[in-house]
Amino acid sequence: MIQFTVADWAAWAPGLHEREAWQAWSKAPVLPAGDDTPALPEVPAMQRRRIERLGRMAVQAAWWCSCAEADGVPLVFASRHGDVQRSFELLEQLARGEPMSPTHFGLSVHNAIAALYSIVRGERGNYLALAAGRATAEAALVEAAGLLADGAPEVLVVVYDARPPAVYADFLDEPDPFYAWSWRVRAAGEGARLSLAWATDPAGEDASAHGIEVHRDAGASLDDDRGRADVHGIAASAAAPASAPAALPAGLDALRFLLASDCSREHRVDGLRWTWRRHD
């Protein structure tokens, strides 16, 4: 088990740009939809032109959450699919026998967005990029906990994802909206105090379609919860939670857990049961 404090957070998704909007969304979550893209005014135009839509979302969320006084903070960028649209376009060019752009190839690798962020921010600390399927958000926090244990005062965690090209539709096993969020994670201090535990769970995939269960505070409205479950497919109960197909991708549901009043969250995937708890 790991324990950590979320000192600050930021997020960006189509139609959800402000903290107040995200707080309201966490009480009645829906899949973000729309074509808007962050303007990213913090980044010089020459560099901004190289960043695709998903990268802009990730960089914007990270920028808003970063602390100017914290120098050399480790970065953990986590995305299940990454900028797969750019990779797919390169594969199409290769299949047609066309030359591939070295620049586009360099920007298609999984750590490209993290590298671009570190360059435009002038960050000199270490960064890593990871993907862990539907447990990508959990893996990012485990990596952050390791960095904190090694002595880092805090870690900037950025989780982001986007809709893959239509050719991959038959392989998708959860919703796939555009979104990005960032947490400033510390070992202790002021902020939301969370823990994350994991254990083997061979039957986990049979328990629910996407393996997400939600435990609400005793004071939460059962009527609100039932309405939320009916509309969004999220299992919710003030007593014993039930299971149902989750309407949110697992990575985005982790943000909802932070912002909502849930006391715990379970995510079953790939033979593991991940248990999130709040200790505020």
TrEMBL record:
One GO molecular-function entry: acyltransferase activity
Segments forming domain Beta-ketoacyl synthase-like N-terminal: 22-207
One Pfam family cited in the UniProt record for this chain: Ketoacyl-synt_2
Name the record gives this protein: 3-oxoacyl-ACP synthase
